[in-house]
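Just wondering, does anyone understand these tokens?
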Amino acid sequence: MGILGPVEILRPNGVKADLQLQCRKVLALLVVAAGQPVSTGQLVRSIWGDDHPSHAPQMVRSHIRVLRGALRHETERTLPTSAAGYRIAPDRCAVDAHRFRELLDEARRRWPRDSIGAARTARAALDLWRGADAMPDVVDVHSLRAEAAYLEELRFQAEETLVLASLESGQTEFALPRARRLAELHPNRERFWLQLMVAEALSGRLVEATSITFRQARHHLVKETGLHAPGLERLQRELLRGGRSTEQLLNLITQRPRSVA
């Protein structure tokens, strides 16, 4: 099952199940519930609101039948029913978002002790995404919109972890273009600018980091949005002072509890 992109069920033979929009909403709500039962009434209110059609409960039951047909193998164990409602049994199916969070947690545990492993794991987590957004087809449902925003924030964190781990393991040629793209796509996130400046400095582009990139970052973060970006000024000063190692620069922009002096 996938929600890191349009909501889908991928059958064992690799073919996607053909699901109508409301059926995908039911599926997404059950996946997001993470194994907890969701009642018919909750599904109805989430999808149609309080002013729902009288036949909405019957429509939910119809969608459940379709989902069970799409799942086929061991359907009663994968999508069981109880007095509390319907649920997706997390131990009976693979969900891309669950695997993404597991890999992100593993990458965080590995870094900075095992930067190569952390980079590899963070990249595997990001490879699970099938587009720029989570569940773009169902975000008119309020609770799904909130979950999509949460997943996208975790994606930013996975990107940050990948760039940091790549820099620490010496893969500057990989980290630099990725850091530049992230800063261009998300210019209001200070962390991406800091990573870009460090990547440029470690690639021998110190002048570019402390002049062009610094000015661009300051324009977006301070002048356009009015944000306070103390990390930006601090990093520029340290880069201009020179003599900082990769570890010291990464300590500075991540505030790891080790001295940079």
Confidence is low (pLDDT under 50) at residues 257-261.
